[in-house]
Amino acid sequence: MGWRRITAISLAAVLVAGGAVAIGFFATHVPTSVATALPGATPGQGASATHAPGDRPTPTDAARSAPTGSPTPIALVPRFDKAARSHDDPASIWVVVDKDRPLQPADYAPPDLVAVPVPHVWEPQLRREASDAVVALFAAFTAETGLQLQSQSSYRSYPTQVSVYNDDVSAHGQAVADTSTARPGTSEHQTGLAIDISALPGNCSLEACFGATPQGTWLAHNAWKYGFLLRYPADKVAVTGYAYEPWHFRYIGIDLSTEMHTDGVTTLEEFFGLPAAPTYH
Question: Where in this chain does the record put each D-alanyl-D-alanine carboxypeptidase-like core domain (predicted)?
Answer without folding.
Answer: 125-253
